[in-house]
Amino acid sequence: MDVQTRTAREVKEEKERTMLDASRAAVELFIDHGSSSFTIRELAAHAGISERSFYRYFPRKEDVVRPFLAAGSERIAAEVAGRPVDEPLSTALVHAWSGSWAATHVEQLRALHGILRESEAFRAQWLQVITDSELLWSRVIAERLGIGPRSYRAALAGAVVAAAIRLSTQAYDDTGGDEDPTRMFATALELVGPSLFTPAESEAESEAES
Q1: Per residue in 70-105, pLDDT tens?
Q2: Is 204 helix (H, G, I), strand (E, B) or coil?
Q3: Contact 136, 77 (CB under 8 A)
Q4: In three state form, how does the secondary structure of 64-80 look?
Q5: Is 34 helix (H, G, I), strand (E, B) or coil?
Q6: Taking the C-alpha atoms of 108, 100, 175 and 69 in order, what is their torsion angle to the nearest 10 degrees?
Q7: Distance between CA atoms of 98 and 51, rounded to whole angstroms?
Q8: DSSP3 helix / strand / coil % (the chain, rounded to 5)
Q9: Predicted TM-score (pTM) of this structure
Q10: DSSP at 61
């Protein structure tokens, strides 16, 4: 039974790696050419997989960007979770975001958002990833603050971080200015105020927020 379970897990992990590699290859192709106007055959060939596999992993062409975008959120959240426990949460969030792909590849970010705006279907993928990341952020933040992961405060904090990421990347793309996404992200968190990201000061407070 253990062998079967382990094998199933390995198959799942291999599939996820293949999907992410294909997604990354497609995103890089879109950015390099400033367009998503490629056929499924071209995308599959560029990613090194068959058309049949492409359709199995990505039922619609627009689905191909999703693993790349989702992996970005997961990497940032993991970075926050691994920051020193005595570091203020807002500091940990900004530090993790500053090392993200979006913050370190700003011109590619602008090009990618140009691609995502090409159609509602592409934009919907990005917005869905942002929405899905709220739960991920709620769990990470709850762990850092010592509150319940399903508490209202954790849910609100997760939604705020997800919104700050969306607005900072979108604003950078829309303005075409020099202010980088990291500064925009930090500013968004500052506007909310420090109390949302401050650990529970007492056991009673922690219980109330669980």
Answers
A1: 999 999 999 999 999 899 999 999 999 999 998 899
A2: helix
A3: yes
A4: HHHHHHHHHHHHHHHHH
A5: coil
A6: 70
A7: 37
A8: 80, 0, 20
A9: 0.86
A10: G
